[in-house]
Amino acid sequence: MIKKGNLHRVFLFLLMALVISGLCFAGGKKEEKAAAPEEPKGTGKVTVMAVWGGQELEVFREMLKPFEERTGYKVEYEGTRDLDAILTTRVEAGNPPDIAGLPGPGKMAQFAAEGKLVDLSTVLDMERIKADYAQGWIDLGTVDGKLVGLFTKAAIKGLIWYRPDQKEKLGFAIPESWDQLISISKNISDKGVAPWAIGLESGAASGWVGTDWLENIFLKTHGPEKYEAWYKGEIPWTSGEVRRVWQEWGKIVADEKMIYGGKQYVLSTNFGQAHAPLFADPPQAIFHHQATFIVGFIQDQFPDLKPGENYTFFKFPYVNSKWAKSVEAAGDVFGMFNKTPEAVALMNYLSTPEAQAYWVSGTGALSPNRNVSLVFYPDEITKEAAKILKESEMVVFDASDMMPGEMNNAFWSAVMDYVENPANLDSILERLEKVRKEAY
Amino acid sequence: MLIQRVFLSILAVVAVPAVLVVYMFLSEKGLIKSKRKSFTDRIRPLLWLLPALLLISGILIYPVINTVVLSFMSANSTEFVGLKNFAYIFAEKEMLIVLRNNALWVVFFTLLTVTLGLLIAVLTDRVKYESVAKAFIFLPMAISFVAAGVIWKFMYEFRPIGTPQIGTVNAILTGLISDFKPQAWLSNRSQNNWALIIVGVWMWTGFAMVILSAALKGIPYQLVEAARIDGANEFNIFFRIILPLMKNTVVVVTTTLVINVLKIFDIVYVMTNGNLGTEVIANRMYKEMFTYRNFGRASALAVLLLVVIIPVMLINIRRLKEGGARG
């Protein structure tokens, strides 16, 4: 019997040794790399995880240079397009990055409720933050009275892009109201040109472009308070209020004459190329609905076009004039998982106007920090958009991003299903309602 | 921190083998000392097996049991919900589409891949440029699923009528057939599942072909010759002699493909992400797990896959054994 007990212990030890060896092989290598360069000042490092790649990442690296030089800290960046899955897994495994872009305010609230996020008011200079940020942005990053998320860059959603030369040629005025927009669109389609260029495809997130449409129509129909109730799951999808929003959008997207290429094109075209028909010769479409960041995509594809001159935007028209001044925005929100001195320093740096000016001038993003001077904005349209954001009275956040993951996903898919067959609206809304009951 | 890790690494590299050696040494010593020979003979294999068994239970058996347990629990695994997760899988309309898609994949992907593989194996067997032809068919196997998905997404690209078609498939079809309307292959419900299955077939035909071709080469030439002398035509030779002799290999290839296709994920994930009625079980499992954080349903789907795959796997193993015994 005693022998057997010993044996057990041996095996247990053996198993543990194996597990431990696995663990330290996984971690051991990294350590060597980080410890090698001996910096004269600080030698600490801070790990950051976000979705950036390409140009955004270059700008981020530029932004970090002065920080790294000043402090001597090293920033280790890990980029992933599948942030939600990877970050959640890392957090659950007890191995989160020090600072991470959060997949959305919904996920932020979840992490905060689980106590994973550091209260930023204990690490940031709150007086400066309050001077720099509009209360709205602070509120958006606050969960249960704790500031857990800091917005570092922003975009305005619900802008309608067009070419000034086409406006002159077709002779339309900038529409103030939704009805005007619809009637202008009808006039254009009567002339044999498709008024709208829409593309909903976006890999795993296909359909989000449509949620932006619906959110803007909802906001401009029912106002910010209802809007909040909607993403909080307090309004049934099958209610008349929600249904009306879909039907309004249907005036455009359910009418094959209103959309370039018909519904199959809308469903299978990537959002990043959807603006292309506007710039064909002759133009195949007149309007394109997208957030401010589309400027980057247009610049990539048509480097000769001048923003503000060859193309520009107008604000999403109101359905109810009461809500004409409301604006939908989205942004990258950052949270802190480990309160190390290095992470604290970086978080403070990221919130400064100095750091955010990099985003603004490098990527055409907007800064939620109101002390970033307008001179940093690279062109007239981003300046204009920044002004809208600064002056807006009612800023709301992207509703689908605020919904729980399951709801958000179902919303995306529902957009695809609706465009495919608008006659199915009833069953689509019923399905969404079912998810709402489960997800909240 | 660093010292600790270095210490642990050394511990792992040196200590683990050392412990194993000491364990073996001690157990053998104990066994040799023991007087009862029949007992030591019985216990010895067990002692040698034990470390491996422990490892397997730690990394294989325990996760399986845990998954089964989780499949009866709620989304966050805190309360027992009985068969609710399974009821969801078999009752929800959306899930039924998922199951239907998997059935489509299993039947048509397997059928097409095996048939094409067999056909190509038999046909190339008779030509001089066999190796070149086979190399081309086998080439897609070397590409990752994700890359293949991306490639085929370009192939299926859709542009409205009247504009230049940049997707290969539409470009060829509109070029050859004058009144052909370009199709959005991946978003049109009547054809998107087929479009995805074709990608799978394109990737796996090479695999089926190589194995079947090897089996074909193993059939003694005398048999075929004898049949010819007896007056059998080529058709009869294939169906009455070659195919029966290859039966085991065909079954093994088929079951292997079935197991693979039941778990199909990458192609769907990359190309449509399950939108517009193309979702499959593995894709849904990923979503339930990582997007919805519903551990219960994700585990239930995993269990479902496991239950479906086990019988196929058993057939596969049995055939493999038989084949081995004969060969």
3D architecture notes:
The complex is a heterodimer of chains A (440) and B (327). With 440 residues, chain A is an alpha/beta fold. Chain A has 2 domains: 41-156 and 331-390, 3-Layer(aba) Sandwich (D-Maltodextrin-Binding Protein, domain 2), CATH 3.40.190; 157-329 and 397-439, D-Maltodextrin-Binding Protein, domain 2 (3-Layer(aba) Sandwich). Chain A has helices at residues 2-35, 54-71, 83-92, 105-113, 126-132, 135-140, 164-170, 178-190, 208-231, 240-253, 262-268, 294-301, 341-351, 353-363, 380-391, 399-402, 405-420, 425-439; strands spanning 45-50, 74-79, 99-102, 142-143, 146-147, 150-157, 159-162, 194-196, 285-290, 312-315, 326-336, 394-397. In chain A, strands 1, 2, 3, 6, 11 and 12 form a 6-stranded mixed beta sheet that branches. Chain A has a 4-stranded mixed beta sheet with strand order 8-9-7-10. Chain A is globular. Residues 1-5 and 21-40 of chain A have low confidence and may be disordered. Chain B has 327 residues and is mainly alpha-helical. Chain B folds into 2 domains: 2-70; 84-326, MetI-like (MetI-like fold, Orthogonal Bundle). Chain B has helices at residues 2-33, 37-70, 84-91, 93-124, 130-138, 145-155, 168-176, 192-217, 221-229, 234-262, 266-271, 281-291, 295-326. The longest helix of chain B has 34 residues, at 37-70. Classes of the chains: A alpha/beta (440), B mainly alpha (327).
